[in-house]
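Posting for a labmate who doesn't have an account.
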Amino acid sequence: MKILIISLSGMGNTLMYTPALRLLRKKFPDARIDFLVRKKFYGSLLKNNRDKDNILSIQDGSWFNVGVNLLKLMLERYDISIINFPSRKFSLNLFSYLVHAKKRLVHSYDNAYFSTFSQNKKLRADPELHDIEQNLALLKLLGINYSKEDTKMVLDIENDMGDNFLKQNKISEKDFIVGIHAGSSTDYNAEFKRWPVERFVGLCNKLMNKHNAKIFIFGGPEEKKLKEKLNNLLNDKGWIFDGKMDETASVIKKCKLFITNDSGLMHIAVAAGIKVVAMIGPTSGPTDTNIRTRAYGDNSIIIKKDGCKCYFYPFFTSSAHIGCEKNCLSKISVEEVYERIKQKI
């Protein structure tokens, strides 16, 4: 049996599929399970995941390469294909149809029949579920049920970068290490997910002065200037980490606390079992309780301003639409976040 997971959103969405991937492997131990991502970079966190067989990418290179890769997938004649949530986009469902597995699993949506009509196994999406649970629920179509214990993300890291980084900077694992991610994706205007960098600075100063915190600053290559600005405002008292994604995850594992915007690194910290404080504004969704990509689990603190609905991020799609002054996150104060952190530490 051959199974294809179609995960063409971001890095966080890829990581949030790992609980479902684990159950798929348990149900089909002898199957070949291929995991398709939009860019090779997004699949790097699955490199050591034992539940998949191959990581494939569709968009790296020219559009000609995209066509060649699609043709290769069509020739594989998969038995099952599954679209990672969210899956409402017509283009995504058209892609799944062209691959043309015998069973094509997808979520269905109110008033969106045309988007998913080409799939032949559907389960209605539940707007009250987190993305992790959406993916697990879809497996019911294959006779797979899940429990709360099955929702933990899988993060298999096999490198010594975390240990090496501490050693190089003469930092002990016993120190109060606080990870900071002041950035976010910029897809779909998602830079408006960012808490003001000056607030991160104020919070870091409190943690350094009152708790002797060691501040580790994370972010991708495109966030180099942001990381440098943050550290400059801290009078270079932090440590900036630059590395590959699996190396970044290894260093994040050394943190006692991870303070972040809604981002892929947030999900890495959750998967690593780190206490997470996440500032949520423009991804709160159409209702205050519906944060479908929030930091998952009881070890996380979600800080947001109720009633701030300037960013419409519906549960059924990865697209977003700006519709106001984009200032939700600026309403969250340093003192408010610090008081919540004190309860956690």
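Reply:
Got it, the structure tokens are right above this. The longest helix spans residues 197-211.
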